[in-house]
Amino acid sequence: MDTIIKESIAKSMSYQDYRALVKQLVSENSNTGKEKTEVLANYTFLNDKRMKRWDKTIKVADAAQEKLKAFSESVTWLVITESWCGDAAHVMPVLNKVASLNDKIDFKVVLRDENLELMDAFLTNGGRSIPKLIMIDNTTGEVVDTYGPRPSEATGYVNRFKAENGALTPEFKEDLQHWYNKNKGQNIIDDLLEMLSKLKPTVFL
After folding, report:
1. Please, are residues 15 and 92 in contact by the beta-carbon 8 Å criterion?
2. Which CATH number fits domain 2-204: 3.40.50.300, 1.10.3720.10, 3.40.30.10, 3.40.50.1240?
3. Mean pLDDT on 14-39
4. I need a surface site. Which of 35, 96, 102, 202 has the fewest CB within 10 A?
């Protein structure tokens, strides 16, 4: 596992490079991943617009910023994603915003289909769900936590719908987009603070 993670980090990109890649793919009417289709290219186009909006508008409250700035452990956030993933378009900009507030958090991005060995070590309920954040302690090299593919409230929303209906419908997916737009990343920020608090509880008292 250590080798897989080290190799993945070695070929990772910054969030800024990932955003540049997505923009380039939009100009080419294409998408990341092994499967290239018009549908996935269209999702990539929509997601680029979503990420551009969130990059400009995500707000982190002063109290949350203070906690983030007090976090002193050196960690890497290695995030697995693809350009066509709807959840990733909402989650990735928030991860980047939070990481940018503390230079102890090194934010790295890898693509799922190019890193299946890594992905398969961090499945969600047996599936290759993305985005998936792997938090690594830079001192020990150990994986100390994971996050994703969705924020906690959205996960509960999805699980309840699946339990009642068996599968997600197009209408539900549209409702989920509305939830993301209304929540404005705040549930993700709360989740990330909780994740960091497990590693450094005294900062978050």
Report:
1. yes
2. 3.40.30.10
3. 98
4. 202
